[in-house]
Amino acid sequence: MSDYVELHCHSNFSLLDGADQPETLVARAAELGWPTLALTDHDALYGAVRFAQAARLYGLHPIFGAEITLTNGHHLTLLVEREPGWRNLCRIISQARHNAPKGQAAFPAEELPPYAAGLIALSGCKQGEIAAALLAKDDALALNKAQHYRAIFGPENFWLELQHHLLPADSALIHQQVALAKQVGLGYVATNNVHYATRSGQRLQDVLVCIRHLTRLTEAGDLLRPNSEYYLKSARQLKPLFPDYPEALSHTWHIAERCQFELPDGLQPLPRFPIPNGLAPGRYLRQLCEQALPRYYADPPDRVGEQLSHELNIINRAGLANYFLIVWDLVRFAREQGIRGQGRGSAANSLVAYLLGISPIDPLAHDLVFERFLSAERQVVPDIDLDFQADRREEVIQYLYHRYGPDQTAMACTFVTFRQRSAVRDVGRALGLPLETLAQGSRLLEDTVDYSADPISRLRELCAQIDGFPRHLGIHNGGMVIMGRPLADRLPTEPATMPDRVVVQWDKEALEAAGLVKIDVLGLRMLSAIDEAERWVEAQCGQSPALSQLTFDDPAVYAMIARADTLGVFQVESRAQSQMLPRLKPRCFADLVVAISLIRPGPIQGNMVHPYLRRRLGQEAVTYAHPLLEPALAETLGVILFQEQVLKVARDLAGFTAGQGELLRRALGSKRGEQAMVKLRDDFLAGAAANNIPTEVAETVFGQLQAFGGYSFAKSHAAAFAVLVYQSAWLKQYHPAAFYTGLLNNQPMGFWSPAVLVGDAKRHGLAILPVDLDSSQTNCSIEGQAIRLGFNYVNGLGEVQINRLLAARQAGGFKNLADFCRRTKLARRLVERLILAGAMDRWQLPRRTLLWQLGQLPYQAEELDLTFPIDEIHLPPLSPAERLQTEHSVLGLSSGEQVMSLYRTWLSGQGILGSWELSSQGDGQRVRVAGLVVVHQAPPTAKGFHFVTLEDEAGLIDVIVRPQMYARYRLLWRDEPLLIVEGQLQQEGEVVNVLASSVIALRGLEMSW
Ligand SMILES: [Zn+2]
Ligand SMILES: [Zn+2]
Q1: DSSP three-state, residue 502
Q2: Backbone angles phi, psi at 76, to 5 degrees
Q3: Which residues, listed in sequence order, are joined to residue 414 by a DSSP beta bridge?
Q4: Nearest ligand to the C-alpha of residue 124?
Q5: What residues form DSSP beta bridges with 389?
Q6: 45 near 263, Cβ under 8 Å?
Q7: DSSP 744-771
Q8: Other C-beta atoms lying within 10 Å of the C-beta of residue 332
């Protein structure tokens, strides 16, 4: 038995009022030999799951609690004794959070009584009501409050909390509190209001407090605690502070012994889905699947029935039938509303998900493994991830809120954490470092920079400590948690920054660890773009192209992808993809699945990409490390490309069950799983040995699995995405105007800027019409076969201004500038931008003249009744270069010629080649090229190489920059928009790169860009 354990302890989940992670505190408690520790963060259970995990690791019993803030600003320490107490604490915190502005909490003290069961309350720090009354010499109030709390919680469950931090008034207060306790018939107990594990934590604690209050250490004054006594102290250290009341220390142990509550683990009770005829959920799910069968299979083969039964069995055993029904209902709602959406991720491994319309992929046709989604061995409940068109995702989220009620529906939270850059700024400010110094940002943390000044080394040290600390709360992008009872029965909720949004106090990892299931409702802009394109096609052709009916077998679509004419196409448009596609030459749907899986960190780091391509082209034999690997790896020519193959390899080589294989896959993907990895490696080698596989072979294969890691797509995920690759490519091939319009109206998305998309559209023969006062709509639109830029592209013109313009236009076209200004009353700078965008070119006046006219207008926003004082003046029109430049600055793109065409005569005279001339030069030739920099990449896997893409009027030019070359001309590569590059042509099939050997800026010819 321990003499003392800490019952009042804050972690960094008190958000800027606690300087250690829960894990650090638990580790220190274990060092002190304590069998238990309480965590009492301010108005939160944010850290509860991590605290519980750490406690399990160190063999401690965790006591859950919180320090609650009351509406009158006073504090109260609450500890969970048994189950109802957890529920009540969650409810109290939820209500306190909903009662106060974001980031704060306020619980009305008078509402405590119904929530008292199962809780043990301590009277709190000096901010507790009783201590505060005693300090204010209001003994009557203190007595009154003590009796009041005694009545609420019962004499056994309310304790006077004694704290001694070596401050002048501490001893006197303790005497008073003990006297009061005896008078009222209450116990008393010592705590230390811990804010850091060891004394040295004070420095960081003080800095955090300064960050919270936006002040500096030198100015923080009373905001900081006066000394460093607020750490985990042993009984031996505390005993001298309570000479008259040694029992106050051992009382902690009486309380701790009573707190036997364990964190609930496992699936939350889901809402009961209303099922007709009183069927059990499992029965109803089977019925729905069987009803759907004929729609998906004309003549279902036996294995379909077998797989269906197998899946339904596992789903039922896991108690997840209801969960599938809820997701099915959500998808059905979206479909009825015409909201485009589809499942992604591991759910596509499930035939049930396919039959319910949740996933677009038939797992049997693509040989997908159900156990990757859900297996008997796996402890974790699978999330179902759903993509919806981004512009309508909110409707889906609102549907869930309405269907299951705001009390039972919330989103996972995220913790916005300190990262180096933000830490430097915040910590530096708290330390009072000058702004000029802080402007150097995270460079201050680099060891190579020598700042001998001491504050910098302190800054460095504190930033390292604070890295990864939670700072405030955000909303997880789409993770919805639903429960069949109010969520606050299971975990606290609080309002999010976004109006009408509620988040739970646990993030994705905590939810998963605690066994709660969520549904990820994600927004995908490509789905919005495809949806819009489909509607444009329908408007133009009078018939919907019915993209969902496409059969993935159009040679023209594959030919387009194979020549890397994929700019704007989902997932296969990047520079890396365009380098790979002409070698891969996709011919069927499975090839698309391969294409998007190849360009991933896993296959790239595992050196899978080139072997795969060589084998596919017949340049290298397909071999296997062992014949047993052939079934798993045959479809990918002997290399590992998909996450699922990890499971198959482990099964075939080492006899792993699907569940064990999934454990292995997860361990490969996580950085923390080293211990698990050793165990799995032993199991793998033992299993392989049992199959008579030589140890060297087994070790080699395991090494390959490790190199492959977790940074790869599941085949199911890639397959779901490949559907969108095909649909978007099909649109580009057959309905380019609709395709580009859809893309332009759903930015930002994808790899390329709108300017590059517009350039690509022009190169595909589409006319891009400028913004026009009479013809443009809010968004880009289609006129005949041309794309008309929308007002949305005019920088600074928002919804309000556009609507005002459109409303004014209803009364008829604008006659002239004065008419326009009078009727729209738009701010002068916006009118100026419309002029520069070419929106008023229809009056056939040079833009410069219009600008001059605008300057002459007596412009007072509201009063504009004017006849124009048009003096005839003649200004030179803008040069083509000036036009381009101003259009770019206003629209971010230009409807006119590509800038390089202005230089072409000069460039040709210099022997500088255009993009169209490169493929005929021959490998190894020295060439000079020029263009506008549209992409600059330096991926971490490229070892210092930079990849720059130049655009000219006819296409793109890929330039490779060696590390030294980059370093020498860093400023040019980084800052100059127009470059002339000399280098060696590298040609491999249809893929052409220029390996740069020198570079200069293209400037000053006709304009300053
Ligand atoms: Zn307090
Ligand atoms: Zn406290």
Answers
A1: strand
A2: -150, 130
A3: 474
A4: 1
A5: 524
A6: no
A7: HTT-S-SSS-HHHHHHHHHHTT--EEPP
A8: 13
Q: Which residues surround ligand 2, an ion (CB under 5 A)?
A: 67, 193
**Contact in structure between 954 and 938 (CB atoms under 8 Å):** no
Q: 10 alpha carbon to ligand 2 midpoint, in Å? A: 6
CA 243 to chain centre: 54
Q: In what order do the strands lie in the sheet with 768-769?
A: 768-769, 786-788, 781-783
- As given in the structure block, the two tokens for residue 565 are 């004419």
Measured in Å, residue 8 CA sits from the centre of ligand 2 at: 6
Place of tokens 């690791």: 57
CA distances to 14, 193, 231, 475 from 234, rounded to whole Å, are: 23, 13, 10, 39
Residue 76 CA, ligand 1 centroid: distance in Å: 7
- The CA distance from 721 to 725, in Å, is 6
CA 50–ligand 2 middle distance (angstroms): 19
Expressed in angstroms and rounded, the spacing between residue 506 Cα and the centre of ligand 1 is 23
Return the bridge partners of 981, or none: 929, 999
DSSP lists the bridge partners of residue 937 as 947
Structure tokens at 86: 């957890």
Report how far ligand 2's centroid is from the alpha carbon of 975 (Å): 51
Q: 102 C-alpha vs ligand 1 centroid, how far in Å?
A: 19
Q: Find the 194 Cα to ligand 2 centroid distance in Å.
A: 7
Question: Distance between CA 839 and CA 773 in Å, rounded?
Answer: 5
For residue 224, the CA-to-ligand 1 centroid distance in Å is: 13
What element of type H or E holds 931?
Answer: strand 926-937
**What is the tens place of the pLDDT at every residue in 736-791?**
999 999 999 999 999 999 999 999 999 999 999 999 999 999 999 999 989 999 99
First to last CA, the chain: 77
Q: What is the CA(703)–ligand 1 centre distance, in A?
A: 52
Residue 467 Cα to ligand 1 middle (Å): 25
pLDDT in tens, 480-528: 999 999 999 999 999 988 887 899 999 988 998 888 989 999 999 999 9
Q: What does the alpha-carbon distance between residue 264 and residue 357 come to, in Å, rounded to a whole number?
A: 33
828-836 vs 880-891: helix axis angle to the nearest 10? 130
Taking alpha carbons only, the member of 536, 478, 429, 997 closest to residue 766 is 536
Which of 778, 779, 782, 756 is closest to 768 using CA atoms? 782
Comparing 147-156, 368-377, 650-659, which segment has the lowest mean pLDDT?
A: 368-377
Q: Which residues of 932-954 are buried (b: 16+ CB within 10 A; e: fewer)?
A: bbbbeeeeeeeeeebbbbbbbbb
What residues pack around ion ligand 1 (CB closer than 5 A)? 75, 125, 127
Render pLDDT for 348-379 as a digit per residue (tens, 0 to 9).
Answer: 889 999 999 999 988 888 878 787 778 776 65
